[in-house]
Design goal:
There is one protein chain. By secondary structure, the chain is an alpha+beta fold. It has a domain of 203 residues: Distorted Sandwich (Coagulation Factor XIII, Chain A, domain 1), CATH 2.70.50. 31% of the residues lie in helices and 21% in strands. The strands form two sheets. Strands 2, 3, 5, 6, 8 and 9 form a six-stranded mixed beta sheet that branches. Helix 1 crosses helix 9 and helix 7 packs across helix 9. The protein is globular. The structure holds copper (II) ion (CU). Copper (II) ion binds next to loops.
């Protein structure tokens, strides 16, 4: 009887979720940014949208205003569906071909950078909404010229890290290890994060220097949690999840525990909002059941 009750609850939840989807704007989405090595948008946000310190961040604000920085956790393509190279022309990789983020494509050598070394590297990605999917991280090939616009062919075909992202993130971070190959000088780490519960994907460029940064180069800093919190009100993307993607850890465990349920395939096709709605109802139903 339990499985019947689960299924019946699920149908009700999906109906409710579907109705809700129709009323929900699809624009305001929140996702995250690479904090180690610090991505361009994160580095400029950390300096402060109103008080950028490095010349390149000052120029970004002069060109594009402060909104791209307050929206540091966006840089997405809603309907990417894995077609990254078809959708993003050479020279537009860092902005994901979004006019709003065009300044991120500037081929300059004064972007704040993170000093790195060949070998194991601990990537950190700060997410304001966790998503199920795959994060693939690339680095530019030996001999890459950072004064030229970044092209797809500049990226080494072998990723430096591939991380399957969960629908929860401990303390708001995805942490995973990769392996940086031998390089010298300034390079770009490029991240593609493709959701598997929606066609949406996210992109970023992080500037890194091998062999020690020159004294004149700005060191990239990631935004502090206080800085993130301070900018939430000025962001146009949600910092509290969207479509119910964010889940409390307890709910995530509950959802995982229903993997044998007939609900799960239906949920996979119904999207994150339905998943969350169904999960919430399942959980409340279970709590009710165990209480009674
Ligand atoms: Cu998101």
């Amino acid at each position: 009887m339990l499985s019947y009750r689960r299924a019946a609850t699920g149908v009700a939840a999906l109906s409710a979720a579907t109705a809700f989807v129709g009323l929900t704007p699809t624009s305001a989405a929140a996702h995250g940014a690479v904090f180690n090595p610090v991505s361009r948008v994160a580095a400029c946000y950390a300096e402060g949208p109103e008080t950028p310190k490095s010349q390149v961040c000052k120029d970004l604000v002069a060109d594009s205003g402060t909104q791209p920085l307050y929206d540091w956790n966006e840089v997405n393509i809603a309907n990417a569906a894995g077609q990254h190279q078809a959708l993003i022309p050479d020279g537009k990789l860092c902005s994901a071909n979004r006019a709003k983020y065009r300044a991120l494509d500037w081929a300059r050598t004064d972007w704040p950078a993170t000093a790195v070394a060949t070998g194991a590297f601990n990537f950190k990605v700060r997410v304001t909404a966790a998503h199920s999917g795959t994060m693939t991280v690339y680095i530019t090939k030996p001999g890459f010229d950072p004064t030229q616009p970044l092209k797809w062919s500049d990226l080494d075909a072998t990723p430096v890290a591939v991380h399957n992202t969960a629908r929860t993130a401990t303390d708001g971070f995805y942490n995973f290890t990769g392996n940086l190959p031998a390089r010298t000088g300034r390079h770009i780490v490029y991240k593609v994060w493709q959701r598997n519960d929606s066609p949406e994907a996210f992109y970023s460029c992080s500037d890194v220097t091998f062999g020690g940064a020159a004294a004149t180069q700005a060191k990239a800093q990631a935004p502090t949690e206080a800085k993130i919190a301070a900018g939430v009100a000025l962001s146009t993307v949600s910092h509290a999840g969207h479509g119910g993607d964010e889940q409390a850890p307890a709910l995530s465990a509950e959802t995982t525990g229903t993997s044998s349920s007939p609900l799960v395939p239906a949920l996979a096709g119904a999207g994150a909002l339905a998943t969350f709605a169904a999960g919430s109802l399942l959980l409340s139903r279970r709590r009710n059941s165990s209480a009674s």
